[in-house]
Amino acid sequence: MQKIAVLTDSCCDLSNKTLEEYGIYQIPLRIIYKDKQYLDKVTITPNEVFKNLHIEVPTTSLPDYEIGTKIFKEIEEAGFTDVLVITISHALSGTLNSIKLMTEQFQNLKFHFFDTLMLGYPQGVVVREAAKLVKQKPDISFVLKKLPDIRKRVHGYILVDTLEYLIKGGRLSKFSGAIGNVLNIKPIIGHNEEGKLYVCQKARGDKQGKSKLKQILQDFLDKTSCEVWVLSGAAKEKAQEFLQEIKNMNGITDIHLEEIGAAMGIHTGPGVIGLVVLEQK
């Protein structure tokens, strides 16, 4: 009889509470500074990363091989037969291939890989939905058939507060960034079907930015009911205010407040809010 473990990487931004509730295993990426490195959400928190961004903008690196194989040994010893590995977009990270290399020594486990083509909490929503299916104890083939449809129904957007960190991370030229800062441009970043981040809308200031996020949500709610997450990147008060603004919109089945993690945060900087939508069937 199959016993399926669900495993993801720390780019998913799921809280420890959610990971424990659904029995999800997580491999941490590494956060690299000039003189030190940390394990994402293990030896450094998202808030610590945000707090020190004005001093140094770190980079993210592939999961540590030793830690990854240790987690797979735990899965094997727990009696699992199959492992469903759900990762950050291959277009944004080599994490998927890195994990594949770790699995080669575990001949007693069957591995099934799924690329979410996303980063951050949208990835986490796909992982959570997969774990919910696994809890029903179906055949792995049933879960794998459901995943593409789940991915199509998940959408994520980040309202950037400053262009400074997009410039530092090489995602935006200094010239374009300087013009954007003068004009108080705040881009709304989403993900496309290729698994890449792109600027889907531009706003002039916070007020217009939140208005555009609200309209994005309304467009989904006009089609179907949705579960919604409001995200905070070192901007809890702003995120809570936005949640209060939208929570009574018709069609929202449930609404949550969650944190943006380091993988997204080092590119967007602090003071950002996000919106994640799961369209209901």
What is the topological layout?
Blueprint lengths: L3 E6 L6 H7 L1 E4 L2 E3 L4 E3 L6 H6 L7 E3 L3 H13 L4 E6 L7 H9 L6 E6 L5 H14 L5 H13 L1 E6 L4 H5 L5 H9 L2 E7 L5 E8 H17 L4 E8 L2 H11 L5 E8 L2 H7 L3 E8 L2
Parallel strand pairs: 1-2, 1-6, 6-7, 11-12
Antiparallel strand pairs: 3-4, 3-5, 8-9, 8-13, 9-10, 11-13
Helix pairs in contact: 3-4, 5-6
**Overall mean pLDDT:** 91
Total strands: the figure is 13
Indicate the low-confidence ranges by residue numbers.
170-183
For the biggest sheet, the summary is: 6 strands, mixed
Q: Which H/E pattern describes the elements? A: EHEEEHEHEHEHHEHHEEHEHEHE
Strand order in the sheet with the most strands: 10-9-8-13-11-12
Structural class: alpha/beta
Portion of residues within helices: 25-40%
User: How large is the share of residues in beta strands?
Assistant: 25-35%
Q: What would you call the shape?
A: globular
The number of helices is 11
> In whole angstroms, how far apart are the ends?
30 Å
**Cα Rg:** 19 Å
Structural summary, described in words:
By secondary structure, the protein is an alpha/beta fold. 40% of the residues lie in helices and 27% in strands. The protein contains 11 helices and 13 strands. The chain has helices at 16-22, 46-51, 65-77, 95-103, 121-134, 140-152, 164-168, 174-182, 205-221, 236-246, 262-268; strands at 4-9, 24-27, 30-32, 37-39, 59-61, 82-87, 110-115, 154-159, 185-191, 197-204, 226-233, 252-259, 272-279. The strands form 3 sheets. The chain has a 6-stranded mixed beta sheet with strand order 10-9-8-13-11-12, with helices on both faces. A 4-stranded parallel beta sheet has the order 2-1-6-7, sandwiched between helices. It has a 3-stranded antiparallel beta sheet with strand order 4-3-5, covered by helices on one side. β6, α4 (95-103) and β7 form a beta-alpha-beta unit. α5 runs antiparallel to α6 (140-152). The longest helix has 17 residues, at 205-221. The radius of gyration is 19 Å and the shape is globular. The two termini are 30 Å apart. The model is unreliable at 170-183 (pLDDT under 50).
